[in-house]
Amino acid sequence: MASGLEKVWTFSPVFRSENTQSTRHLSEFYMVEAEIGFAYEMKQILDPMECLVKSVVNNILYGNSAEWAFYADMVGNNEMRKILDSILKNNFTTMTYKEASHLLQTKANSVVSPTQGISREQELLLVEKLNNNIPVFVIDWPKELKPFYMRQSTEDSSICSAVDLLVPGVGELCGGSLREDNFSNLLDRTKSIDPSGQLEQSLGWYFDLRRFGGNPTGGFGMGFDRLLQLILGAKNIRDVVPFPRWPHNCSM
């Protein structure tokens, strides 16, 4: 659809099969997903991400100020407003995965795992302690840490053009990338992680979109419930969902 309409989006439930009891994961959650046609640079997906977060925060604080003030008084959290105002007033910070890892190690004495990537605790360290609660775009990830369809960097084949948006109190709010449109790169990447060829066979339609040509695209997904966590200062994602589902709770 992005090839014809250029900008498309969905807002729908997503189902997760992980057996987790974490405070930021549910078995069912809502996600905003956007895809942009003719995306050649990371800035083309970073700007819409930043605008989306800021527009929602602005509408809550100033379009529905009475309701938000009532909630803030009820929970007695005066820090929420400072954090949200900081999000509105400042440009989001952009740094590479390598720069983020170096900053965590030198400023917080926290070493990033080469196989697991940046942990949730390190995400919060990075945005809250090391960046004054200003959201951070972490870009240019090692391709081994990201899905096969993310575009390989033209400067370094070990890097892919991926991004995670980190925000205070939550950690990762959005994840996205430029999509790999080079069929040879896509095929090589797939074979490296699945030599049996089952992945290529099961996703033949996806590969055909690249095999026969198509415009470059990029996009991202935002966890809507995590956005509510950010705005409301909720520590547990279950507190922003009317009927939260997690493993062994609230059967389908």
Automatic annotation (TrEMBL):
PROSITE patterns assigned to the protein according to its UniProt record, in alphabetical order: AA_TRNA_LIGASE_II
Cellular component, GO annotation: mitochondrion
Highest taxon of the lineage: Eukaryota
Residue span(s) of domain Aminoacyl-transfer RNA synthetases class-II family profile: 1-242
GO biological process, one term: asparaginyl-tRNA aminoacylation
Keyword terms of this UniProt record: Aminoacyl-tRNA synthetase, ATP-binding, Ligase, Nucleotide-binding, Protein biosynthesis
Coiled coil: none
Record GO terms (molecular function): asparagine-tRNA ligase activity; ATP binding
InterPro entries: Aa-tRNA-synt_II, aa-tRNA-synth_II
Protein name stated in the entry: Aminoacyl-transfer RNA synthetases class-II family profile domain-containing protein
